[in-house]
Backbone:
């Protein structure tokens, strides 16, 4: 069994392809139709355990969308405001639910399996790797502050500590990149990425979700707006 | 005598501070040695010099009797040298365990069939077959170390440079590593603080001092009978 994915067994490749398909069609179509909700419902059912955390993230992302929507309301452009709001939330919901429980490496693996150009795939993977390592550095630092009894306040000590930390992050990132170059030299990297995997096992959930998504995008009935 | 590494009068400094002078070190074919010394004394730096990742200030370095004058000279030696980083995260070049283990082999032009076969074998040898399809960054520190080691062993390097290989390994894993390293019939240079561990693996221990290397024979592991002890009762796939 493919172990690169967590509970809802949607393979990274399917996730990446469907995310591109759904978001581009929803973004580019003139109207939104009721059937577009179907894949969201299906995904919601797949992800029923983590819906709460998904909605939390959606809520935070909506604070950004709110700025755009409010500016349209200001211009009394009510229809457009609603359309923008719905459109972006459809896409966000779809992507959040699809990639819930997957990380940046899943996307790198998907790109690899889709046989995208080596340059693109390796850049993406090495970026993902760097982000992962910096994230870990960051959480280590937070833990250090925590166990050493530091509470952030609006005072000079806090700013100094944070500034120092940002500096350290830069240095660490630089060091990591030097080490990455060394690893490439030692292990004979010559611009290509390899995989031993030949065939991909698609799951039942993959097929179901792909079918529903494609159907929902073709079935242009019942315009919402 | 045929040697894997000959170092003569090597001196190194970093940021203008001299780390050591007049380091002389010979590692013969299939010999296992350890380099010890306090934190920051330049153990990693020395390994990096031997691997051609950093140039030395003074002195000469020969690998397999070839003088290494410029960093370019090391290119021809790359496939003979295996290097295990102190922090395994730096080692990985592919997201999935089996792809990373096979990396150097595939980069060296091996066929997929061969790579798949060898990967399966090496993962089995190290007892980590169950990790084959996992994402490397989701593993524990000890598991990462073994995966990194598998990626080094797979090309069957003639000289292995291991930087603190027991870091993050629990006791059982350490014993497994001892077993694995004892079975390998190649030159190995281990950098480690871990006295009990290196005493089980190596024949000679060198201590880094500002004046150079101080050699001592390992009391617990006399060189020659040791080889025999281990090569007789295990037949081993990747060592021959
Ligand atoms: N990136 C670096 N830039 C400058 N000096 C460094 C760097 N890395 C290590 N050093 C210095 O080089 C010395 C040797 O480091 P290293 O070889 O990593 O020591 P060891 O592995 O024995 O702990 C240390 O004193 C350290 O301060
Ligand atoms: Mg070190």
Residues:
């Amino acid at each position: 069994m493919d172990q690169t994915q967590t509970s809802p067994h949607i393979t990274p490749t399917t996730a990446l392809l469907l995310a591109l398909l759904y978001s581009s069609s929803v973004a580019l179509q003139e109207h939104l139709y009721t059937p577009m909700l179907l894949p969201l419902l299906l995904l919601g059912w797949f992800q029923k355990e983590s819906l709460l955390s998904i909605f939390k993230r959606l809520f935070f992302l909506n604070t950004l969308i709110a700025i755009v929507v409010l500016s349209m309301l200001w211009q009394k452009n009510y229809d457009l405001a609603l359309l923008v709001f719905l459109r972006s939330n459809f896409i966000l919901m779809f992507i959040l639910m699809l990639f819930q429980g997957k990380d940046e490496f899943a996307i790198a693996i998907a790109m690899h399996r889709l046989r995208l150009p080596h340059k693109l795939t390796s850049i993406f993977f090495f970026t993902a790797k760097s982000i992962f390592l910096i994230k870990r550095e960051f959480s280590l630092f937070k833990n250090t502050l925590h166990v050493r009894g530091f509470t952030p306040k609006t005072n000079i000590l806090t700013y100094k500590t944070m500034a120092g930390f940002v500096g350290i992050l830069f240095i660490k990132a630089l060091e990591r990149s030097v080490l990455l170059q060394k690893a490439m030299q030692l292990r004979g990297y010559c611009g290509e990425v390899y995989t031993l995997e030949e065939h991909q096992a698609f799951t039942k959930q993959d097929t179901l979700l792909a079918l529903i998504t494609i159907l929902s995008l073709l079935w242009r009935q019942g315009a919402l707006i | 005598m045929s040697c894997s590494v000959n170092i003569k009068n090597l001196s190194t400094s970093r940021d203008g501070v001299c780390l050591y002078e007049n380091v002389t070190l010979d590692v013969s074919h299939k010999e296992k040695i350890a380099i010890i010394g306090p934190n920051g004394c330049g153990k990693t730096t020395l390994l990096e010099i031997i691997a051609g990742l950093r140039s030395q200030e003074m002195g000469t370095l020969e690998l397999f009797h070839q003088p290494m004058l410029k960093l370019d000279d090391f290119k021809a030696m790359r496939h003979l040298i295996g290097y295990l980083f102190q922090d395994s995260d730096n080692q990985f070049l592919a997201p999935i365990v089996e792809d990373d283990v096979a990396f150097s082999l595939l980069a060296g032009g091996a066929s997929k069939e061969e790579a798949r076969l060898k990967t399966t074998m090496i993962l089995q040898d190290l007892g980590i077959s169950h990790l084959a399809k996992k994402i490397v960054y989701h593993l524990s520190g000890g598991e990462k170390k073994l995966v990194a080691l598998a990626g080094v062993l797979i090309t069957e390097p003639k000289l292995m440079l291991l930087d603190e290989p027991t870091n993050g390994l629990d006791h059982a894993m350490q014993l497994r590593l001892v077993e694995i390293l004892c079975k390998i019939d190649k030159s190995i240079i281990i950098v480690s603080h871990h006295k009990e561990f290196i005493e089980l693996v190596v024949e000679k221990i060198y201590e880094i001092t500002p004046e150079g290397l101080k050699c001592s024979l390992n009391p617990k592991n006399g060189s020659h009978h040791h080889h025999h002890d281990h090569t007789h009762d295990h037949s081993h796939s990747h060592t021959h």
Notes: Chain A touches chain B at residues 1-4, 103, 105-106, 108-109, 112, 125, 128-129, 132-133, 176, 179-180, 182-190, 192-198 (CB under 8 Å). Chain A is about 70% helix and 0% strand.
